[in-house]
Specification:
Layout lengths: L1 E5 L9 H15 L3 E4 L5 H12 L4 E6 H5 L9 E5 L2 H11 L2 E4 L4 H16 L6 E4 L6 H12 L5 H4 L2 E4 L2 H10 L15
Parallel strand pairs: 1-2, 1-5, 2-3, 3-4, 5-6, 6-7
C-alpha cells in the first residue's frame, strides 16, 4: 500500500508544518506503507520524504523535468521518476497510490487535492482522500466546503468523501477502513 502525500514545496510559517511533515512520513513508513509525493527535496515535501526514508520506508518521487532541471529533486529517494508535464506527474502519482493525503501547501497542493476529489465524485476511482489539518490550516476550507453543500453546489454524500482530521494516526486508520459510498453523480431529473 502506498499513500500519496500532496503538500507544499515551501516550509510554511514556524516549525509546526515541517515537524508534522517529517513525523507523518515516518509514521507512514513505520506502518509498512510507501510514500508517493512530488519528488522535491525542499519544504514540506522534503520533510515528508526525509521522515519516511529515515524510518526505512519506500519513497517514490514524481517530478516534472522542468523542476528537475532546476535542481529541485530529492537525491536519496527509493525511486525518482522524471516526467514531461504536471499532468503526467499527477497521473503517475494516482496510478502508484492507493490513497491520498493533502497536507498544508499552496496552489499546486489545492489543485492536486481537488482533482483527486473530483475523480472520486465522478467515479473515476474509489481511492480515499484525507485532509491532514495541521495547525488548523484547513479550517477555513472546511467552512467553505460546508457552504458549498448548504448552497446546493455539492451533495452531502460527496462532501463526506473527504476525510478530515488533525490526528495523523486516526487519519491513517480512517484511510485504511474507508468504504466509499455507492452513489451516482449524475441523476435524472426524476431521481433528484
Amino acid at each position: 500500500m502506498r499513500i500519496c502525500v500532496f503538500c507544499g514545496s515551501n516550509t510554511g510559517r514556524g516549525d509546526v508544518y515541517m515537524k508534522a511533515g517529517y513525523e507523518f512520513g515516518a509514521m507512514i513508513a513505520k506502518r509498512g506503507m510507501g510514500v508517493v509525493y512530488g519528488g522535491a527535496r525542499d519544504g514540506l515535501m522534503g520533510a515528508v520524504a526525509n521522515g519516511a526514508l529515515e524510518a526505512g520506508g519506500e519513497v517514490i518521487g514524481v517530478l516534472p523535468k522542468q523542476l528537475f532541471d532546476l535542481e529541485q529533486a530529492h537525491e536519496n529517494l527509493t525511486d525518482l521518476r522524471v516526467v514531461n508535464s504536471m499532468h503526467e506527474r499527477k497521473q503517475i502519482m494516482h496510478e502508484l497510490s492507493s490513497s491520498f493525503v493533502s497536507m498544508p501547501g499552496g496552489i499546486g497542493t489545492m489543485e492536486e487535492m481537488f482533482e483527486v476529489w473530483t475523480w472520486t465524485q465522478l467515479g473515476v476511482h474509489r481511492k480515499p482522500l484525507a485532509l491532514y489539518n495541521v495547525n488548523g490550516f484547513y479550517d477555513a476550507l472546511e467552512t467553505f466546503l460546508d457552504a458549498m453543500v448548504s448552497e446546493g453546489f455539492v451533495k452531502e454524500v460527496h462532501r463526506g468523501m473527504t476525510i478530515t482530521g488533525k490526528d495523523p494516526e486516526k487519519l491513517l486508520d480512517d484511510l485504511l477502513s474507508y468504504e466509499p459510498p455507492l452513489v451516482k453523480k449524475w441523476l435524472k431529473p426524476e431521481e433528484r
